[in-house]
Amino acid sequence: MFRTRVFQEVEMMKERFSKLLLGEDMSGSGKGVCTAVAISNAITNLYASVFGQHLRLEPLSPEKKVVWKREMDCLLSVCDHIVEFDPTIHNFQDLSCHHEAMGSRPRPDICINLPALRKLDAMLLEILDSFHETEFWYEEEGNSARSGSFRRVVQSQRKEEKWWLPLPRVPVGGLSDEARKKLRQKRDCAGQIHKAALAINGAILAEMAIPDSYWASLPKSGKARVGETIYKHLSTEDDFSPENLLNCLNISSEHDAVELADRVEASMYMWRRKGNFTGQSKSSWETMMDLVSDTDRTDKNLELSERAEVLLFCLKQRYPALSQTSLDICKIQYNKDVGQAILESYSRVLEGLAFNTVAWIDDVLFVDKSTKTQDQ
After folding, report:
1. What letters, b where the CB count within 10 A reaches 16 and e where it falls short, cover 235-260?
2. Whole-angstrom Cα distance, residue 120 to residue 87?
3. Are 336 and 31 in contact (CB under 8 A)?
4. CA nearest 105: which of 79, 83, 137?
5. What is the DSSP letter of 162?
6. Are 236 and 248 in contact (CB under 8 A)?
């Protein structure tokens, strides 16, 4: 039995290794994706296979935990061989001279971020492992066993969103004070992990080069892209308030927020490019005649781009679970840096797991609060 399981695991590892080498093109014709995209997809698919059906606060099964740790160690081992070269001085005492040669050292972004991500990974698994004995339990949709007084409230909430998740249940009277306190502490911890993973992911994406295809897709007019209302707020000479602007906009769903983020980000880069490069060659006389107007226009474009960047930041703060923008997806699709691909995909999946953990805890706390309210 043991030898059979080991053989199956070895064969599975061979298959995944082959997919990485072939760039997911099993025909071997060389039409596959680059290594960076292949390894990014491998991490994303591994997360989906291990955590895709994990929809509640409970420890990860030992089998899935072994698969997650073993395969992530294999994928992350690539980073051990990613280095950067820098000149170093070698002193020769016998010859009383020194010689300059190229040496290698680990890349700073990997040295800093990879250990942090591994720590966040271990902390998330530790949080899930702590839910082995709880005062709450779960009930699948449609199962009326151990019915509770809050069920009617939770069902009405789940009709429109989260309807696919199992329903958390608590005893009559709600959770004990100690259990509620521990639950909130774990929620705070998972929330901090989510912020840390989000920050790392954002920093890695910011370092990725913007593909030429995205530059080609930028609109000629930033005003037309963001719309009259947003442009009016961005270009006003009064104090600019991104929070007031977001309150004025009719953002009714996360889809609307993502669409707004795409429009603001595209206009931001368009204004930034206009502010730094006009794209036209002029004679010295034309340059002198247009000096003042060009300076004013450049300052205006830079100001618009800065305000758009602030608006985009506030939008992402208001919607922390916002899906990736078109630029983010484009960067991941065309990225060829393997180190950045590993850090981005690893931080992205940890960000998703941390966010789900916070949401699951919120569901239990919501049910607990509803139960206490109905009992009163």
Report:
1. eeeeebebeebbeeeebeeeeebbeb
2. 34
3. no
4. 83
5. S
6. no
Residue with tokens 């001085």: 89
Distance of CA 375 to the CA centre of its chain: 40
pLDDT > 50? residue 21: yes
Instruction: For 192-213, write each residue's pLDDT tens digit.
Output: 999 999 999 999 999 999 999 9
The long-range contacts involving 48-57, CB below 8 angstroms and separated by at least 24 positions, are: 51/349, 51/353, 51/356, 55/164, 55/165, 55/166, 55/360, 56/138, 56/165, 56/166, 56/168, 56/360, 57/128, 57/131, 57/134, 57/136, 57/168, 57/357, 57/360, 57/361, 57/364
What number of other Cβ atoms are within 10 A of residue 122's Cβ?
A: 11
Cα–Cα distance for residue pair 260/253, rounded to 1 Å: 11
* DSSP character at residue 31: -
Q: What's the CA gap between 201 and 340, in Å, rounded? A: 10
- DSSP H stretches of helix in 161-290: 177-207, 212-217, 222-226, 228-235, 242-248, 254-276, 284-289
- At residue 88, the 3 state secondary structure works out as strand
Would you mind telling me the total number of residues written for the chain in this entry?
376
Give the residue among 274, 265, 332, 333 at the shortest CA–CA distance from 298.
Answer: 274
Which residue has better confidence, 374 or 228? 228
> Which pTM value belongs to this model?
0.81
Q: How far apart are alpha carbons 145 and 151 in whole angstroms?
A: 11
Q: Which residues contact 254 (CB under 8 A, 6 or more apart)?
A: 319, 321, 322, 323
Beta-carbon contacts of 193 under 8 Å, excluding residues fewer than 6 positions away, are: 120, 123, 124, 350, 354
How far apart (Å, rounded) are the C-alpha atoms in residues 200 and 187? 20
**pLDDT at residue 156, as a whole number:** 34
Q: What is the pLDDT of residues 79-105, one digit of tens each?
A: 998 888 877 776 655 556 666 667 778
Place of tokens 């030429």: 212
Measured CA to CA, the distance from residue 350 to residue 124 in angstroms comes to 8
Contact 138, 166 (CB under 8 A): yes
Report how far residue 158's alpha carbon sits from residue 277's, in angstroms, rounded to the nearest whole number. 51
Residue 236: predicted pLDDT? 81
Structure tokens at 270: 């368009």
